[in-house]
Amino acid sequence: MLDREVELHALVRPASVAMPLLLRHIEYFRLATYAVFSRRRYDALFIWQQYVGIYYYLISIIFPFYNRPCCVYYFIYRAEKGSIVSHVKGYLLARMANSKFVQKAIILSRCDALYSKINAEKRMQFSTYTEKSSYIENRIRQNIKVYGSDYFSGGWSNRDYFAVKRLAEMMGDKKFSVACLPKDKIQISPIPGNMQVYCDAFGETFEDLILSSKAVILPIEDLNVTSGQIVCLRALQSAKPVFMTRNNFIADWMPDIESVRFLVMYDRLEELHAILSSLTDEDLRELGVQAREYYLSHFDEYPFYRGIADVIESGLLF
Q1: Which domains occur in the chain, in start order?
Q2: pLDDT, tens digit, for every residue of 187-236?
Q3: What is the DSSP string of 40-56?
């Protein structure tokens, strides 16, 4: 793996948000069970899902045998006031990260609610991220350009779709498409006539909505919770400019955010409305070209996985 003395054995159980919640957590639990009862055959474990990490921790308490160095990646936690479920989740994540069964916990941003609750010697910030869709690459090679909407917005957590609805009402001459969960659609109903909402757009269907738009809007609800990076990467790969609520985590991920033109941060909806109203379709296309060029030069898969290998070598295999 990346010219290292590391032999990687990967086990993946697909568990997308398209699956029912219970079935998804059954898959997380099955993967954690496999990790616990198979770890004696490995030198270290790398868990890429925080719920798998929680189940791994809970199962390990009962079956602590053959413990191995373990790293859990992709910590994102949003504390919800008054929510017992949120409190329990935060408690378990912190206990898991600080337990003897986990040596390193990778968090994507210093503003995450769990950052200060995880012991400094175990906590790691790893902001680099990569995502590459072969479907998008194929579509770009085929030069297929079909515009179904002017602006697309999508994602399953920490989104302010009320803002997209208000923007659609303010820009009645533009078409909007949104990919969200059914609960989000219910919350923003009734839907404006120039806004199409999809609750079953996953995988390639989701990417088609990005490709068939002129730009992508990411309205963030909680400015301290890291979110939207996968959709953002899909947009940049698809040569689409991105308009995103100004937040406290994007600078950890893109240090040069203030100097790029294709990823525009806005504070208020009225500001976004003014920005979009001032841009022509040709402006959006030019910004899209810059977005893809930046994606190809900054989000290559090699440096990301090289960083993961560094974590495994220096943090686990010692």
Answers
A1: 21-130+301-316 (3.40.50.2000), 134-298 (3.40.50.2000)
A2: 999 999 999 999 989 899 999 999 999 999 999 999 988 889 889 999 99
A3: GG-S-EEE--HHHHHHH
